[in-house]
Each structure stands twice: as structure tokens, then as C-alpha cells.
Amino acid sequence: VRGWRRFVGHGLVRVCVPVSVSAAATTSPFLAAPSRREGEAFHPTGTSRDTVYDAVVLDNDGVLVGRTRYDVLREATWDAFDSLSIDDPDPDDVESMVVGVSPNELRTVADRYGVAAEDLWAARDLHAHQQRREIEAGRKDLYPDVSVLRDIDAPLGIVSSNQQQTVDYVLDHYGVREMFAAAVGRNPTPESLRRKKPNPYY
């Protein structure tokens, strides 16, 4: 078992947020829970029977599917600079736009090359579609233990700081969209950077 954690939102909705899906159904913290009748509350193993969960929400990368290789993301970022006709950018500037980008970093780099931060970020996210090629080539696979999620009698959802289009492509490519009541990814806007971890929006 790779583990799970809990998040309680504002006292209104309680959700179980697994860090990952179980490696085997026999050791799953979900499947090990006593079976429950329809309409009965969902209680993961190790939680109080008084703790009621309304949904199970998962991350996408590293939980449902493998992570995208860093060199793929770096190449996509170089392509974004090229698409904006930014010739010979400083490699450090490109590197700073690959992962973990802050709003201030984005605007600083955009100003340095005389482009709008919105345009630079939209180009960066657009070229991140290279993740699709990784999926199609079998280098970003769905984890085999995802099938155990079908045995959880609670609504499932996905919240990811990866792009919405990438999350949608994962669900459609692997044919698992029907498993999830909702799947929320990040929008290709600078504002989305303020909503990434540790902000709990994504």
C-alpha cells in the first residue's frame, strides 16, 4: 500500500484523499474496510466509524498514471519559447518555466523577452501536449492497480495541477472516464499558478 491521507473541507464535505491506489487489492486500505450496505457511509480502514466520507478524491500524476519525464517537459518549454519567436533564450529562463513556476517568475521572464505573461504561459501549456505522445508511446501508463477503485462504493474524483486537457486525455485514452464523477485540471492561465500547491484549489 502506498498510503492515503484525509482532507476535511470546511465541515461541509468530507473526502478521503488517497496519496495513491493500493498496489494489491488484498492490501488496499479501501477494500480491507468492512463491506457496507447501499447508502451506508464509507469508512476507510483505520478511521473512526464516526468519520463519514462523501467522496474519494485522487491526484492524477503519480497516483493514477506515471509521472511525465522531466526531459519531455523541458523540451515542451523550449518549443513554447520558439513558438513565440524568442531566439536564443537564456537556458536558465527556460529551465525556470518547466516545473514549479511562480507567478512572479513567469512575469519576470516574460518581461525580459517583451512578451505578455499570458502568452508565454499559454504557449508553455499548449506545448505540454507532448505528454500525449508519452501516453500513446506507453511511457506514461495507467497504474495496473487502478482497477481496485471500481470496488469503492463512494463517488470518485480527480483534482490535478496538470493541464485539464492532459487529465481529459488520460481518462479518454485509458477508458476510465466513467469511473470518476468529476475531473478537475489546471487552466492554461497565469492565475492558475496561484491555485497550485500548497493552495488546495488544484
Structural overview:
The chain has helices spanning 70-83, 91-96, 103-112, 117-127, 130-136, 164-173; strands spanning 5-9, 13-17, 55-58, 156-163, 182-186. The protein contains six helices and five strands. 25% of the residues are buried. It is α/β, with parallel strands linked by helices and 202 residues long. Strands 1-2-3-4-5 form a five-stranded mixed beta sheet. 29% of the residues lie in helices and 13% in strands.
Write a short abstract of this structure:
With 202 residues, the protein is of the alpha/beta class. The protein contains six helices and five strands. α6 (164-173) links the parallel β4 (156-163) and β5 (182-186).
Count of DSSP helices?
A: 6
Ends apart, CA distance between termini: 24 Å
Helical fraction equals: 25-40%
Query: Which structural category do the helix and sheet elements fall into?
Result: alpha/beta
Neighbour order of strands in the largest sheet: 1-2-3-4-5
The helix-strand sequence is EEEHHHHHEHE
The overall pLDDT average reads 78
Q: Using DSSP, what is the number of strands?
A: 5
Using the alpha-carbon principal axes, give the shape. Answer: elongated
Strand residue percentage: 5-15%
Query: Biggest β-sheet: count, sense, barrel?
Result: 5 strands, mixed
Taking pLDDT < 50 over at least 5 consecutive residues as the criterion, the unreliable ranges are: 1-14, 22-43
Rg: 19 Å
List the keywords.
about 200 residues, alpha/beta, 6 helices
Secondary-structure map:
Blueprint (H helix, E strand, L loop, with lengths): L4 E5 L3 E5 L37 E4 L11 H14 L7 H6 L6 H10 L4 H11 L2 H7 L19 E8 H10 L8 E5 L16
Parallel strand pairs: 2-3, 3-4, 4-5
Antiparallel strand pairs: 1-2
